[in-house]
Specification:
alpha+beta; 2 domains; 6 helices; 206 residues; 20% strand
Length: 206
């Protein structure tokens, strides 16, 4: 099974935009900066970049062969497909496994996104008859059915459905149920440690 990754596309794009901006400024500090002001600016840049990495670029939900890997900002949570007992969505996707549960950092369903999804579904409902013509284009039967099926559903709801359906398919495979496991993310810890080292160096020099 080829790994699939689900995340907030907006956060991912903005995260990489910041990375390019940070790299440009880091080069500029090295070439033109003077100690200690350059080191202080570098420390601020490092802290912000670390926050963007752990909050925007790292988080995601990965579909793997034997289970689901949830990458939250600082921790990784692996849930075997057979151990997925339930999935529901509030503002975030929550995966239940036995007496434990994991709240996924991304994708999330904001109130604005859910309201937009409701309006999208309403747009696919049959138009009410009236005296005056409407400016909305008339949808085909298939388009109305698709819009009604997605009424009120956000990207997070869709991902939750994919998790549930995949877990149901995989539950018929042979093997033990397994259990949810939580580990610290090495990449997140390394990035935070580097940012902390810049802050300490800036405090010492200044």
């Amino acid at each position: 099974m080829k790994p699939q990754v689900f995340r907030s596309k907006t956060a991912f794009v903005l995260g990489w935009v910041w990375m390019v901006f940070a790299a440009f400024n880091a080069v500029d500090l090295v070439r033109r900066g003077t100690i200690p002001s350059a080191l202080v600016a570098g420390a601020v840049l490092a802290v912000l970049t670390a926050a963007v990495f752990v909050g925007c670029l790292r988080p995601g939900i990965l579909f793997q062969e034997h289970g689901l890997l949830v990458r939250n900002p600082l921790r990784n949570v692996f849930v075997p497909w057979k151990a997925v007992d339930g999935v529901h969505v509030s503002h975030a996707i929550v995966i239940e496994s036995g007496d434990e549960s994991v709240r996924c950092w991304t994708p999330q369903a904001s109130a604005r996104e859910r309201a937009r999804a409701v309006r999208r579904g309403a747009a696919g409902s049959p138009a009410r008859s009236g005296r005056y013509p409407t400016s909305q284009p008339e949808l085909s039967k298939a388009e109305r059915a698709a819009a009604q099926a997605m009424a009120g559903r956000t990207h997070a709801d869709w991902v939750a459905t994919q998790i549930t359906e995949t877990a149901e398919k995989k539950s018929h495979d042979e093997g033990e149920r397994g259990s949810l496991t939580v580990t610290w993310s090495p990449s997140a810890l390394v990035v935070l440690a580097v940012a902390l080292s810049f802050v300490i160096a800036a405090l010492i020099v200044s």
